## 1
Amino acid sequence: MSSQWGTLFRVSTFGESHCYGVGATVDGCPPGLALTEDDIQPQLSRRRPGQSAIATPRNEADQVRILSGTENGVTLGTPIGLLVRNQDQRPGDYQDMRRVPRPSHADYSYQMKYGIRASSGGGRSSARETIGRVAAGAIADKFLQTAFGIEIVAWVQAVGERVTHEVDHTTVTRAEVDQTIIRCPDTRVAPGMEADIRAAREAGDSIGGVVMCVCRNVPAGWGEPVFDKLEAMLARAMLSIPATKGFEIGSGFAGSTMRGSQHNDPFVMKAHGLGTSSNRSGGVQGGISNGEPVVFRVAFKPPATISRPQSTVDFDGNAVELAAAGRHDPCVVNRAVPIVEAMAALVLADSALRQHASTLLRSITQQP
C-alpha cells in the first residue's frame, strides 16, 4: 500500500512535497489517552527542515493540527486526523526536472509505474511524506510510554566512514542526542561528522550514514510468528523510510562471522525474571521480543539530489548535464532520527495491541 501501515494501530498518510499539506489519519489508538498538539510537535520540530546549518534551508515550521479524534485533550478511540501545512514550497525550482529523471531518484520509476508523476520535489517519494509518519509515531510513542514505560531513542552512529561505538544504549536519552546538531551524543566524534557533511555540501555532493535505535522496556512476548516476526516488521518499517538501504538487528551482519558459542545469549535470573547476559539477539528471538532492549541499525544512502553537475539523459534518451536546483539535505541522518523513532513506535504500538488481543482471547479460551 502507498498510504497505510499497521493491523490494529493503523496509520494512513497523505500528501506530496509541494502540495497544500501533508498529514496522517491514525485509527486504533485506544480511547482515554491524554493527547494534544504539544505531545506531537516536539518530534516534528526535530524532523523539520531548516533547523541547522547541515540541513536543507527550506523553511517550514511544520506546525501540526489535530483535526479529529480527541476532545478536551483526550483521545476518543475514533480516527485521529493530523495536518501540517506546506508553506515554503517552491515547485518552480524543479522545472528542468520535468524532462530529466534525476540519477538514483524515484523520478523514472514513478513515471514507469503511474505514467505521470509529481515532478516538483519528488512527490510521495520525497522525505516530506514522513511528516505524517512522525506525527502518528508521536501518538504511538505517547501510548507506549503511558501504558508500558517504553523508551525509544535513536541517534546517529555513523556519517560516511566516521563511526562511534561509544554510546551506551542502556542509558542514552533524547536530550543527550539533541546536544549536537548531527544528533550524535558522542561529542568527540560529532564535530567531525558535522565537518564531513559541510565538506560534502561545499563540493556540491552528499554523504550517507547510519542511525542506531534502542527500544527499552519492551515486554517479552511481542511479535507474531512466522511472517510478522517483530524484527521483520521493524525491517519493513525502516526500509520504507526514504533513502534507506540496509537494516540489521542485534549483531546483524557481524554475527555471521561468529561461532555459536560466541553468539549465543545465555539466560540469567534478573530482578524482573529471566533475562540474558548478552544481547546479540537484539532483544528478539524467534521473531518475538524476549524482554531485553530491542537494538537495531538503519543505513541511509547519500541523498540522490546533488548540485554537482552529472552526465545523464532525459526521458527521450538525449544526453544532458544535470545540476539539480532546489533545496536539499547533504545528509539525511540527523533529520532521520525522529523518523526512525516514529516507525519503531508504530511497530511496537501495533504489536502491543495484537498481543493484548491474543492475551485476552487466551484468558477466555483457557480453562483455569
## 2
Amino acid sequence: MVIRLIAADFDETLSERLGIVLPEVLAAIRAHVARGGAFLLASGRITASIEKIAAAWDIPCHLAAANGTVIEAWPERRRLRALELAPDIVRRALALGAGRGEAHLFFDGCFHARASPEVERYSRILDVPFVHAGDLAARAAPGARSVIWRCDARETPVLRAALADAFDGEAYVTASHACLVDCNPRGAGKDRALACVQKALGIAPGETLGLGDSPNDLGLFAHAAFRGAPANAHPELKAQATFVADEPYGRGALACLARYGLL
C-alpha cells in the first residue's frame, strides 16, 4: 500500500472547532509532501478563505474551494477550473430556500448576507469580509460560486432534498455541515475536484486517502480506495469509510493517517 495523495476536508476533519489546527496535523501533512506526496485541501469554504489557510501553512498543494467549484494549484494559484452559478439559478435557489434559514451568497473574495452577530462571527471564522445585503436576489451576478443556508439541523435534510429535487442536475446541492446547505454550480462536487487533481498528477484512486466528516465529503470517498473518518463524522461518511477513528476532529484525522502509515 502506497498512498501518494491525501485528499482532505478542512473544518472538523483536519481542524478542531472554529478552524483551529493541531500542530501534529500540520506536521504530518508537511512530512507527507516532503516525501514526495501530494495534498488536496477540499472545502465548502469561499476561495479566499481556503487560500489564506494554504498561505499560512506554506505547503505546496491543490485547493478545491466551494465544494470543488474552484480548483487551484498552490502556491502558484494556477486555476484548473472555476465554475459559476448563473444569476437566474441564484434567484431561484433563494426563492426556494426562503424562510428555511439564513442565506449567504459566495463570491471568490467575499460573501453577501444580511448583517447579524452570527454573520459577523461567520465572517471572522472564514477570515473574509461580508457585504450587508437586505435583498440577496438583487446581488445575483456573474462570478457567484454558491448559495449557502445556515439552518436548524432538523431543517438541513429537508432543504437539501427540496433543492436537489427542484434543480435536478441544474445545480449541485449538498450539505457541508449539519447546519449548512450548499447550492453550487452544475459540475461542482469534491468527487470531480479529486478526479481532476488525480488526472493532473497521474495518481490513481488506489493511491489516494480521502478524509472527511460531512455529506459533501462523500465525493472524496468516491475516488479514494482508502477512506478515513473522525469520530464526529456524519453517519453517511462512517458507513462508507474503510477506517473510523475513535477520536473526533484533528485527533481523529491523525488516527486515520497513522492507520495508513502516514505518521
## 3
Amino acid sequence: MRMKDDLQIGDRHFTSRLILGTARYPNPETMLECIAASGTEMVTVAVRRYNLQDRSAESILGLLRSGAFHLLPNTAGCYTAKEAVLTAELAREALETNWIKLEVIGDDETLMPDVTELLKAASQLIALGFTVLPYTSDDPVTARKLADMGCAAVMPLGAPIGSGGGIRNPANLSIIRELISVPMIVDAGIGTASHAALAMELGADAILLNTAISGAEHPAHMARAMKLAVEAGRLARMAGRIPERLMAERSSPILGMIHA
C-alpha cells in the first residue's frame, strides 16, 4: 500500500509538492497545458501584474479558477514592507484569500530579498491574519526567524530568480531543514529536473518554479519532467540514502568465496 504523503501548509493539504508560477508563458493555452502536465494544485499570481478585476472566462484568473487551483497571490515587484502589506491586502479583497507569497526585493540587479523589509512585512501580515509564505535568502538565521514568528512555510532560494543556476548552497538548505519545523519550499533558481530532485533530496518539502518551464523549448515536457523529479527526490529522501564513503566497499560478501 502506498504511504500517504500529503503536503500540509497552514490548514490545507496538497498531494502535489510542485507549485507553479503563471508568468512568461507564450500564451494561456501553453500555461494550462503545463499546469496539467505538472500535476500541481497551487499556482501563484502576481498581484501587481494582473488585472484582478477581470473575472471573465478568457482572463488569466478566469482560466485558473476554472481549473479549481488554489491561488497563491504574490507581492512580486514590491521593494518595501509598506508596499508588500498593501499589495497583500488588495489581493485578499480581490481574490478572497488570506494566503500570500511574500516577496520584498532588495534591488533590480540581483532580485535578492531585502531581509530587513521582509521580516517587517511578515510580522505585520501575520498580525493581520494572513497565511504567509515568504521568499527569502538561503540564510538559516533568517529562515528560523520567519518560522518562529509564525510563517506557514519558509521559501529559500536555490539561486537567483530566473537564473536556472540550481542549488548553489546545498549545505545551507540542509541546515534550514534542521532548524525549522514548518515546510521548506525551494523557490527560485531551479533550471532543470535534476535541480528539483536534488532540492527534494536535501529535505525540501516542495518546489516552486516558473521560468524553468515557461522558458523551456518544450514547456509541457519540462513540466512533466519536474513533476517526476519532485516525486523521485521526495522518495529518495524518505528511503534514506546510503552514507558516502571515501573508499570502496564490496557489494558482495567474500565469505565462502571459491578460490582457485
